[in-house]
Every structure is written in C-alpha cells, then in structure tokens.
Amino acid sequence: QVQLVESGGGLVQPGDSLRLSCATSARTTNSGTMGWFRQVPGKERQFVTAMKLTGAGTYYADSVKGRFTPSRDRATNMLYLQMNGQRHTDPAVYYCEATRGNVITSSIRHMGEYDYWGQGTQVTVSS
Q1: Which of 56, 94, 92, 72 is CA-nearest to residue 24?
Q2: Are the beta carbons of 96 and 4 closer than 8 angstroms?
Q3: DSSP state letter for 105
Q4: What is the rounded distance in angstroms from the CA atom of residue 69 to the CA atom of residue 60?
Q5: What was the pLDDT predicted at 24?
Q6: CB neighbour class for 66 (10 Å; exposed up to 12, middle 13-18, buried from 19)
Q7: Do the beta carbons of residue 22 and residue 79 sit within 8 Å?
Q8: What is the pLDDT of residues 68-123, one digit of tens each?
Q9: Would you list the DSSP string of the chain?
Q10: Which residues contact 113 (CB under 8 A, 6 or more apart)?
Q11: Quick one: residue 44, left, alpha or beta (phi over 0 = left, psi -120 to 50 = alpha)?
Q12: Three-state SS for 113?
C-alpha cells in the first residue's frame, strides 16, 4: 500500500507561486494515476487536477487551468503541484491522492476512485 505525505503549504501573497510536494512510501507505477484535491472548511473536497502516469492525459478544474500543473519526479518518486498566480479563491487544505491502477477518464475527477491519500497541507493567501 502506498502512503502519501504532503508538504509545502503556507502563507503566500496574491500572484505568488508555490509548489506543493507529496512524498510516497513506494514508487508509483507508470500505469497509475495521481490527483490533487482541495477542501475549504464547510465545503466538500473538490478536484483540482490529475494526471495519468502513462502520459495519456492531464486534467484540470476550470478554476486552475493554466495556473496549476501536476508532475512526478521519476528519480525520487515525489509528486508535485506547481501553483502559479495564487488567487484569494485558492486557499484550502490540499491533498494528493493516487492509485496504482488506471482510472477511466470519466471518473478521474471523483475522489473515491483513488486508493491512497495524504493528510493534507494548508495553503493560505494573504490580503
């Protein structure tokens, strides 16, 4: 079973860039899927972005497309979320999630499709 631990959250200014990291306890296979979700208190956890590690596709929520980019470092097996152009709508607890298998495209935005997840890291945008 893969365990994930997020880090890199913090307080940023509007427009700043921030990179979140997710350490995995085991190498994610190239047939797997990774995703990032975020949650604001009082609201349901929502999809941010995901990618098929085969390279078959990358998917984005409309609110982050063009600003956020997921990636994997093949050498270290670290997962990342590069967040550029932070907005006041972005503060949340961010979670990385993954599965060793394939998630069909029609379900890739559904949190329940992912087998492994971290504890989250807080991102706050200052006024």
Answers
A1: 72
A2: yes
A3: G
A4: 9
A5: 85
A6: exposed
A7: yes
A8: 999 998 888 899 999 999 999 899 999 999 998 888 899 999 999 999 999 999 99
A9: ---EEEE--EEE-TT--EEEEEEESSPPPTT-EEEEEEE-TTS--EEEEEEETTSS-EEE-TTTTTTEEEEEETTTTEEEEEE-S--TT--EEEEEEEESS---GGGTT-GGG-SEE---EEEEE--
A10: 33, 99, 103, 107
A11: beta
A12: helix
Residue holding tokens 């971290």? 118
Q: The tokens 């078959």 sit on which residue?
A: 56
Share of the chain above pLDDT 90, in %: 73
Which tokens sit at 92?
Answer: 């949340």
Residue in this structure with the two tokens 């994997």, named with its chain if needed: 72
With H, G, I as helix, E, B as strand and everything else as coil, classify residue 95.
Answer: strand
Task: Give backbone dihedrals phi and psi of 113, rounded to 5 degrees, phi first.
Answer: -80, -10
Q: Which two tokens stand for residue 42?
A: 């009082």
Give me 82's structure tokens. Answer: 């590069």
